[in-house]
Amino acid sequence: MTVTAARNDLRSRMVAFRPPWQRATLVPYVLVGPALLCLVTFSVLSILVAVVVSLTNLDIGGLANYGQVRFIGLRNYQTMFGDPAFWEALGNTAFFVIVGVPTLVIGSLIIAIALNFSRSWIFRALRAFYFVPAITAIVAISLIWGNLYNSQFGLLNYLLSLIGRDPVQWLTDPTIAKFSVALVAIWRGSGLDIIIFLAALQAIPPEYYEAASVDGATEWQKIFRITVPLMRFAIFFVTVTTLINWMQFFDEPYVLTRGGPVHATTSMSLYIYQQGFSYNEFGFASAASIVLFAIIAVVTGLQLRARLGGDA
Amino acid sequence: MENRYMKQITAMGLFALALWTAACGGGTTTPTSADKGPIQIWTMEDSTAFTALMQDFTKQTGIPVQVEAVPWGNVNDKLTTAVASGNGPDLMQVGLSLLPSFESAGALLDLSPYVKDHPALQSSNYLSAVAADKINPSGKVLSVPWVSDVRVLFYRTDILGAAGISAPPSTWTQFHDDAVVLAQRGKGKYGYYIPQWDSALPVEFTWEAGGNVMQNGKVTFDTPQFKAAADFYISFYKDKLVPTASDFDQAQGFISGTAPMVISGPYLASAIKGTAPQLDGKWNVALLPRNQKGTSLFAGSNMGIWSKSKHVEASLRLLDYLAQANAQLAWYKAANELPTAKTALADPTLTSDPMVKTYSNQLQDAQLLPLVPKWDKISQALLDSLNSIVLKGADETSTLASLNATVSSLQT
Q: What mean pLDDT value characterizes chain B?
């Protein structure tokens, strides 16, 4: 045995006897560990606790005196499925998702493509301008939009009166209020989606467009044959996150209408909030939040599956 | 990505975690004879005026008081956090409508053993609407009255006069007829305004129709008097006498004259005086229009001692201080909130003001809303039903029938 061979043998043995924390296979687990710990403590554990609470009658009396808390099986779920307000909230959430998500995704994509046409200072200023709603506090938004929409002294109705139109009950007609609230949320949500789309647009190599121009492609052809296909992942990401956000739709109806008039803008999240934090029925609210969680999990799972299927 | 759902789940989870960590805080509260605080009190909204009042108390007793103002909208959050954590103040102001929540949370100390040592806190000193048995349906003394608030009719003397109405309506019929005349002033003008969030109004109407919404300890709307109240409520919408917009601003509408009659409390008077001093002399208040009766809503706040307070004796001294006519009148001067102590209400500084005299008279005929834990849900169902009739055109008979079914199922 040569010296080199012996040294190599020793080295391989040393590798074999490395303590576990030095083995390459453990490194990824150590790295994701802290994140996983947070996820387990603040998400998984909380969800499990909510599942347990949803089977009890926990209310404020139970909170003060645990002796009053009883397991009541699935009665919370039974009551909820018999509550017309629950179905209305579910229907409203579906309405907001169906109206809001496509408008937001397609609208943001169009605006992002338009903003990407030039890098002149006007376009750069416009990019900042479109991002402003995303960073404005919801309270300020509610004040401003509440005053725009107000039926007594709102600006919108004043402008309508200038052209001789009747005032519109922006937030006080049960049907119109749904659209008014959704409009504010679309306006507010567009900033973030546009930024994500812009980043994706700027990652597309300009050579593709140059080659297409040489081949005589029109601007429309470039958009539909190059831009949109190359942005598939960004579009998918924005659709998934926007969909989840809208299924949890809460801020805008909470600050603008408190879910009214007559529940017309009460979303599932707002329904859960009212049950839990206005009526102090924590068990019931947990049950409702488990239902919403299940719906979001199923919808997101379906999307991921469709995406995997499309990519394979 | 913002994840609101997780926030809610986490909040629910924290409540439940508290369930398992159990048995924290507490301890026996054996007050020492020389309890010098310091004590902490939660009051509503603005704390500056209350802090000023407390300086006098501290001067008299040597007990320092920390005042924390809680906005009305956050009361429930504050309460649940305090109950879940066991960390509360020593005293708290409790809106009458919140008494059932505070009671079922076990947040308030039973004061019945202490009342005999503090004659000022005895029930007979207070207005009969807030007698001990009325504010404590379960029989203990969990809180004592602090300030009162009552609904009266606000009307614009100038607008009613111009429409040929010389005196405010005193009966339901006159009320409705006057509203018709006032609504005829033109497009966008109304006779009256019904706040769509106001669940007390249909209850007031029921009392005025000679009925009651509580029967045998349970809330019921299945009475002819409630039907009369609902019909009266609906008639204002049917005849287009009130605005249908839910964001209509009551004070703004009264000041602009869009709604020249409203039913509200003394806080509206402060709002008018503050924002529209030019209206001085062009408006007044009157007792509520009568049907069988002229009963109004008694609102207002009580004061209670937190069940886990370690300064019960010092807190009792503060309650005693606040029950005295001097403090009640000082508070009226500072915050425009009416007293609950009879001696304070009879004081010349109050009786010399004709508007306060009207409030005072109406206070003699005013009732509390039902103090039952489910009232929040029941009153929401009540509002939902009435509003879906008047705003969405739902059928009255079937909607009220399903309201009755909901109300009885909520109380099983």
A: 86
Q: Residue B56: how many CB atoms within 10 A of its CB?
A: 13
- Across B23-32, B44-53, B237-246, the highest mean pLDDT is recorded for B237-246
- Mean pLDDT score, B209-227: 92
Give the separation between CA B92 and CA B43, rounded to whole angstroms: 6
Cβ atoms of B65 and B39 within 8 Å: the answer is yes
**Shortest CB distance from B13 goes to which of A50, A69, A172?**
A50
- DSSP element (H, E) containing A300: helix A282-311
Residue B345: CB atoms within 10 A of its CB come to 23
Secondary element (H or E) of residue B41: strand B39-44
Find the distance separating the first CA and the last CA of chain B, reported in whole Å.
42
Q: If you measure CA to CA, which chain A residue comes closest to B189?
A: A152
Model pLDDT for residues A246-273, shown as the tens digit of each residue:
999 999 999 888 887 888 999 999 999 9
Q: Residue A12 is encoded by which pair of tokens?
A: 């391989």
Q: Sign of torsion, CA A214 A216 A220 A226?
A: negative
Report the amino acid identity of residue B276: A
Q: Is the dihedral of CA A264, A268, A273, A278 positive or negative?
A: positive
Report percent pLDDT > 90 for chain B.
41
Of B137, B253, B199, the closest CA to residue B386 belongs to: B199
Of the given ranges (A2-6, B52-56, B106-110), which has the lowest mean pLDDT?
A2-6
Task: Count A/B contacts: CB-CB distance under 8 Å.
Answer: 140
Task: Report the first-to-last Cα separation within chain A, whole angstroms.
Answer: 52
Own/partner long-range contacts of B386-395 (Cβ < 8 Å, ≥24 apart): B386/B202, B386/B230, B386/B233, B386/B234, B387/A261, B387/A262, B387/B196, B388/A262, B389/B234, B390/B233, B390/B234, B390/B237, B390/B238, B390/B244, B391/A174, B391/A261, B391/A262, B391/B196, B391/B237, B391/B244, B392/A174, B392/A262
Q: Which of B246, B256, B411 to mutate to test the interface with A (most CBs of A within 10 A)?
A: B246
Model confidence band, residue B19 (pLDDT cutoffs 50, 70, 90):
very low
Q: Using one digit for the tens of pLDDT, what is the confidence trace for A79-91?
A: 899 888 899 999 9
d(CA A25, CA A47): 30
Supply the ipTM of this predicted assembly.
Answer: 0.73
pLDDT of residue B26 exceeding 70, the answer is no
Show the domains of chain A with their CATH numbers: 82-311 (1.10.3720.10)
Verify cis geometry, omega within 30 degrees of 0, for the bond prior to A34.
no
Close Cβ partners of B277 (under 8 Å, ≥ 6 residues apart):
none
Q: Tell me: the pLDDT tens digits for B220-240?
A: 999 999 999 999 999 999 999
| Cα–Cα dist B262/B151, whole Å | 10
Structure tokens at B87: 């960390």
Cβ–Cβ of B76/A64 closer than 8 Å?
no
Interchain pair B12, A296: CB under 8 A: no
The full set of domains in chain B, from first to last, is: 37-149+299-367 (3.40.190.10), 152-297+371-410 (3.40.190.10)
CA distance A72 to chain B (A): 15
